[in-house]
Design goal:
It is a single chain. By secondary structure, the protein is α/β, with parallel strands linked by helices. A seven-stranded mixed β-sheet has the order 3-2-1-4-5-6-7, sandwiched between helices. Strand 1, helix 1 and strand 2 form a beta-alpha-beta unit. Helix 1 packs parallel to helix 6. The longest helix has 25 residues. Bound molecules: glycinamide ribonucleotide. It holds the Pfam family Formyl_trans_N. One of its GO terms (molecular function) is phosphoribosylglycinamide formyltransferase activity.
Length: 199
């Protein structure tokens, strides 16, 4: 079976993307990364360039409305993907909500990784919010993306203990270790499953 074709969206340092790239480069990988998209000049784009994966940047500020940006994002995904739409779109530290144009182009085939145990602590500051709440266990969650803020169906979850004296940075780094592994597992199993047929 040909490897599933994946597009990855990032905003930050891209350590999660780097893990996906390493997994995709393994000889028997069920997926290949055909493009990486960012909403700005994300440092993580360097991982894609190093691996000779095509990249595109679609900043929100370059578009008059959010709906225009969303349509431009959908078009950029289609263009990066080339001959056919991707089998899976993976948000790996993408810090913006995708809108109806992107969602409707890839029904049930967009996933997001989040650094907290959803439905607790959704949004842009999952690690900070969990720490501020004083939880003793947090973790990471991979969800199917819907129109809400981290409200989609939960596909996988792993727990991480909060240590005495943890800062947002130390805790986030420990979460990212399990998060990367979990995301690679989820992408590999979705890639091996047949794509849903249009209704
Ligand atoms: C990851 O922990 C991811 O869950 C988080 O950004 C980090 C990206 O790290 N995403 C969110 O918080 C989305 N709400 P990276 O840039 O090193 O891959």
């Amino acid at each position: 079976m040909a490897p599933a074709r994946i597009i990855v969206l990032i905003s930050g340092t891209g350590s999660t993307l780097a893990a996906l790239i390493r997994a995709a480069q393994a000889p028997d990988s069920a997926f290949e990364i055909v493009g990486v998209l960012a909403d700005g000049d994300a440092p993580g784009l360097a991982h894609a360039r190093q691996a000779a994966i095509p990249t595109a940047v679609v900043p929100l500020r370059d578009h008059p409305t959010r709906a225009d940006w969303d349509r431009a994002l959908a078009a950029a995904i289609a263009e990066l993907s080339g001959r056919a739409l991707p089998d899976l779109v993976v948000l790996a530290g993408f810090m913006k909500l995708v809108g109806p144009a992107v969602l409707s182009a890839h029904p049930g085939r967009i996933i997001n990784t989040h650094p907290a145990l959803l439905p607790s602590f959704p949004g842009a500051h999952g690690v900070r919010d969990a720490l501020a709440h004083g939880v003793k266990i947090t973790g990471a969650t991979v969800i199917e993306v819907d129109a809400g803020i981290d409200t989609g169906r939960i596909l996988a979850q792993r727990a991480v203990e909060v240590h005495e004296g943890d800062t947002e940075e130390t805790l986030h780094e420990r979460i990212k270790v399990v998060e990367r592994e979990m995301l690679v597992d989820v992408v590999s199993s979705l890639a091996a499953a047949p794509a849903p047929q249009p209704a």
